[in-house]
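Long-time lurker. I teach an intro course on protein structure, and each term I like to show students one example going from raw sequence to a predicted 3D structure in token notation. This year I'd like something fresh instead of my usual example. Would anyone be willing to generate the tokens for the chain below so I can use it in lecture? Attribution to the forum is fine with me.
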Amino acid sequence: MYTEKVMEHFSNPRNVGEVEDANAVGTVGNPKCGDIMKITMRIEGDVLKDVKFKTFGCGAAVATSSIATELIKGKTVAQALSVTNSAVVEALEGLPPAKIHCSVLAEEAIKAAIADYYKRQGIDPEPIIGCNADCANCGK
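-- Reply from a regular --
Happy to contribute to a lecture. Here you go:
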């Protein structure tokens, strides 16, 4: 059902925890399945110097969080924003169709953290990242 890569990242997740001096924090959840992902980052000079995650959820949620942090750590903000859920699935060498939503959460968590970073800098993130579809908290 799961690839060896998924099982490896579930059994030995990378970058677990919280970045102590984080200047970017993104938390997203899926009310249908109950998965919650929190990604914290330290961005310096447009580079993601440190990235960590905490995930409450199934094995696929943990694995997608783990691989997502590996895909973006050390990259520029623009490179991190280009990581799609499809890239997460590809890096894990596949996910069952019923678990694709976990890769979507990983992509959304990255974008939420970077949006938080821009907000802390006094920059409107929507023109850069797009709408996050969180209408209740949009303020518009």
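Some talking points for your students: The chain is about 40% helix and 20% strand. The two ends are 43 Å apart (CA to CA).
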